[in-house]
Amino acid sequence: QVQLQESGPGLVKPSQTLSLTCTVSFGSITTNNQYWNWIRQPPGKGLEWIGYIAYSGATSYSPSLKSRTSISRDTSKNQFTLQLTSVTPADTAVYFCGRWADSIYWGQGTQVTVAS
């Protein structure tokens, strides 16, 4: 069964870049027809889709975040990474990585707080 683990700093200063890595175990990010996603949940709010990187390396982003978002991958490490630039306190949320395929799985999430 595929496992996903988010990692990265829990505190980011305003105007800096948020960078999180998802490490995938017991699965491959290059497996055909699988999509590797980031979502987030701000406190007291619903889930917001950020974007994905597909098995092919193609990316897709939420229109509201596209200008600040970049998702990349390192196939040798079986990892994919979220970078969100110019962060503000509104970007404070629990961030999840997940796989969309024949079934959907998510990591446990990691809290990121944007503050000085």
Commentary on this structure:
This protein is an all-beta fold and 116 residues long. The chain has strands spanning 3-7, 11-12, 18-25, 35-41, 48-54, 59-61, 69-74, 79-84, 93-100, 104-106, 110-114. Strands 2, 4, 5, 6, 9, 10 and 11 form a seven-stranded mixed sheet that branches.
Which residue ranges are poorly predicted, with pLDDT under 50 across at least 5 consecutive positions? none
For the biggest sheet, the summary is: 7 strands, mixed
Oligomer: single chain
Order of helices and strands: EEEEEEEEEEE
Determine Rg (CA atoms, Å): 13 Å
What's the mean pLDDT score? 97
The geometry reads as globular
**N-to-C span:** 39 Å
**Strand share of the residues?**
over 45%
Q: How many alpha or pi helices?
A: 0
Number-wise, the strands total 11
Helix content: under 10%
Estimated structural class: mainly beta
